[in-house]
Design goal:
Layout (H helix, E strand, L loop, with lengths): L1 H4 L4 H4 L5 H8 L12 E6 L11 H14 L3 E6 L5 H4 L8 H18 L4 E6 L4 H12 L3 E5 L6 E3 L2 E3 L1 H12 L5 H10 L12 H12 L14 H20 L3 H4 L2 H14 L4 H13 L5 H10 L14 H6 L2 H11 L15 H4 L27 E4 L7 E5 L7 E9 L2 H9 L8 E4 L14 H9 L7 E4 L10 E7 L16 E5 L4 E4 L3 H10 L10 H9 L11
Helix pairs in contact: 4-11, 6-7, 7-14, 8-9, 8-20, 10-13, 13-14, 13-15, 13-17, 19-20
């Protein structure tokens, strides 16, 4: 078995000249017969700080047991995690996107420094997934991702809840349209178990797309974190990884252009998060695969939204799982010519082979997954908009809207905090275009998510009648007339930095246009006077991120 594995860890465990290394491994449980086994890192994102990652330890334990039983030597290590739902609307949110890079760096450092033969990552919150994938692709040793699972939905007075319900309740309560009893009741009941936020928000978007990517087991991504099947799936993933080590199946064998197209197609079909666009640009960069915002738009135009999922729909992840899950959606995409069936998966099967036993059409006793010819929307919901406000591109989420076109006067804010105060003080009215700038990858730094302002607008009944654009990001729980990832960002002198209060701005998803309706010569004069502001941070991880990060149109990568 050892010869077949071509073990990297032999550089640590082999030969008399390596005896000091062997001595240290004996101290952590290696016996005489263990040095010929593959060493598999188990990257453990367990954290008691948040529900997304609080259920991970039992999954890591089951994975370790399965690895040992399969002839490998599991070695666990941790990585940090930021939970957006807790840091949202605070200065702490600036560390969220940065954590994607920190996670990738941490996994790459731990695995590469110890010459491990494979890595199994168990993560729960939003940035765990892309961070892990970027790290695995950089190292390019056999790896698999195990999602910690989704939270179970809460209820209050018979109404199903997610964490976004709490954010939207803020605006509704402040508008005088909700009692204090209901406001507190929603807060106390929105998150009833461990697991990541329950809608097709960023965590569930990324975990489900990793099934389509081929780097997670089919059917594993929408299980509830506390349920026994989630731990069983972790053990199955471990056994599959050991086989992948034997077969020398590496991440870059799996994460090809076709695989990334499959993943983005799944994101569109399920109504997933805008963050998936940013993260798959970064994943493609790590995989050394050409993939751009224009490719995202091409996929959007050919892919219908066939799942009725929150935030703009009715159902949550556990409902999707019960209805057939991601495999059912993938099979529908495959039989309708929208999926590359020859893409490889971690099991060694092609995607078509892995989906062979899945029915071509969804069950009639559910309406979470629509028949392919009866979609929620004929085209995908994540539109790439360009224009003089975003020559590099921007990303708009256009589902759930009666008319995704608006022109109105700009209300301009140089931070999320300024904007939130204006919304709560009723200074934003129907027809306005809210502009939140200097929140981009460099300007923030860290590209904060704008869930608090967008939820407050919805809570005040302005979700359909107010536009919002930003060089920051949006939570996967956001819906409404919103455009994010505007590039170039304000800090780099993008046109978003030149908007003045009252300027006419157009958001037109039909024409895929984001336009400042001001004469070119006026924009040029403003640009000549513009001065880049001083950086908000000059030391520490935020400053380092700011110095290295690319444009959002390139995935906000740091290498």
């Amino acid at each position: 078995m050892a010869d077949a594995l071509n073990k990297r860890s032999r550089t640590i465990t082999g030969g008399m000249e390596r005896s000091p290394n062997r001595a240290m491994l004996r101290a952590v449980g290696f016996g005489d017969t263990d040095f010929d086994k593959p060493i598999v890192g188990v990257a453990n994102g367990h954290s008691t700080m948040n529900p997304c990652n609080a259920g991970i330890q039992p999954l890591a334990d089951r994975a370790c047991t399965a690895l040992s039983q399969s002839g490998a030597m599991p070695q666990t290590f941790g990585f940090p995690t930021v939970t957006d739902g807790i840091s949202m609307g605070t200065e702490g949110m600036k560390f969220s996107l940065i954590s994607r890079e920190v996670i990738a760096d941490a996994i790459e450092t731990a695995v590469s420094s110890q010459c491990m033969d494979g890595v199994l990552v168990v993560g729960g919150c939003d940035k765990n997934m892309p961070g892990a994938m970027i790290g695995m692709l950089r190292m390019n040793i056999p790896g698999v991702f195990v999602y910690a699972g989704t939270i179970k939905p809460g209820t209050w007075k018979g109404v199903p809840l997610t964490v976004v319900s709490s954010f939207e309740a803020v605006g509704t309560f402040r508008a005088g349209n909700m009692s204090e009893e209901d406001f507190i009741g929603i807060e106390k009941n929105a998150c009833p178990s461990v697991g990541a936020c329950g809608g097709m928000f960023t965590a569930n978007t990324m975990s489900s797309s990793f099934e389509a990517l081929g780097m997670s087991l089919l059917g594993s991504s929408q299980m509830a974190s506390p349920d026994p099947e989630k731990a069983d799936s972790a053990a199955d993933s471990a056994r599959v990884l050991v086989e992948a080590i034997k077969k020398d199946i590496k991440p870059r064998d799996i994460v090809t252009r076709k695989a990334i197209e499959n993943a983005m197609t799944l994101v569109m079909a399920t109504g997933g998060s805008t963050n998936a666009v940013l993260h798959f640009l970064a994943i493609a960069h790590a995989a050394q695969v050409e993939f751009s915002l224009d490719d995202v738009e091409t996929i959007r135009q050919r892919t219908p939204v066939i799942c009725d999922l929150k935030p703009s729909g009715k159902y949550v992840a556990v409902d999707l799982h019960r209805a057939g899950g991601v495999p059912q959606v993938l099979k529908m995409l495959l039989v309708n010519g929208l999926l590359h069936g020859d893409a490889l998966t971690i099991t060694g099967e092609t995607m078509a082979e892995a989906l062979a036993s899945v029915p071509d059409a969804p069950r009639a006793d559910q309406d979470v997954i629509r028949p392919f010819d009866q979609p929620m929307y004929a085209q995908g919901h994540l539109a790439v908009l360009k224009g003089n406000l975003a020559p590099e591109g921007s990303v708009a989420k256009i589902t759930g809207l009666k008319n995704p076109v608006i022109t109105g006067p700009a209300k301009v804010f140089n931070s999320e905090d300024e904007c939130m105060a204006a919304i709560l003080d009723d200074r934003i009215v129907a027809g306005d275009i809210v502009v939140i700038r200097y929140e981009g990858p460099k300007g923030g730094p860290g590209m904060r998510e704008m869930l608090a302002p967008t939820s407050a607008l919805i809570g005040k009944g302005l979700g359909e009648s107010v536009g919002l654009l930003t060089d920051g990001r949006f939570s996967g729980g956001t819906w409404g007339m919103v455009v994010g990832h505007v590039a170039p960002e304000a800090y780099d002198g993008g046109t978003i930095a030149l908007i003045e209060e009252g300027d006419s701005v157009t958001i037109d998803a039909h024409q895929r246009l984001l336009q400042l309706n001001v004469a070119d010569e006026v924009i040029a004069a403003r640009r000549a006077k513009w001065v880049q502001p001083a950086p908000r941070y000059t030391r520490g991880v935020l400053a380092k991120f700011m110095k290295n990060v690319s444009s959002a149109s390139k995935g906000a990568v740091t290498d």
